[in-house]
Please model this.
Amino acid sequence: QVRLVESGGGLEQAGGSLRLSCAASGGAFFTLAGAWFRQVPGKEREFVAHISRSGKRTGYADFVSGRSTISRDNAQNMLYLQMDDLKPEDTAVYFCAANTDVADNYLFRYADNYNYWGQGTQVTVSA
Model:
């Protein structure tokens, strides 16, 4: 059973930066695409970024606008989201997710397409 645990969230001022981490366990992380989603109360979980199993393919939601970078380190079973130029509207619970990526080309951007999820880490951006 794949387990994902996020960390790195917290309180940051607008314009600042945070790096979110996701530690994977249970084996076979190198076979899994990774993704980050975010969610605020009363709203649907929102796609932020995805990365294929090897890291060679990435994609971002339009609202990211170059402010975040997704990356991974398969040797350490880690997934990351570097967040820069934070805005108050970035405040949310951020979740990492993973799913089997047969062809190193898993490009889906919907929560229902990911089978493994972390518990979330809170990001709060103050004005």
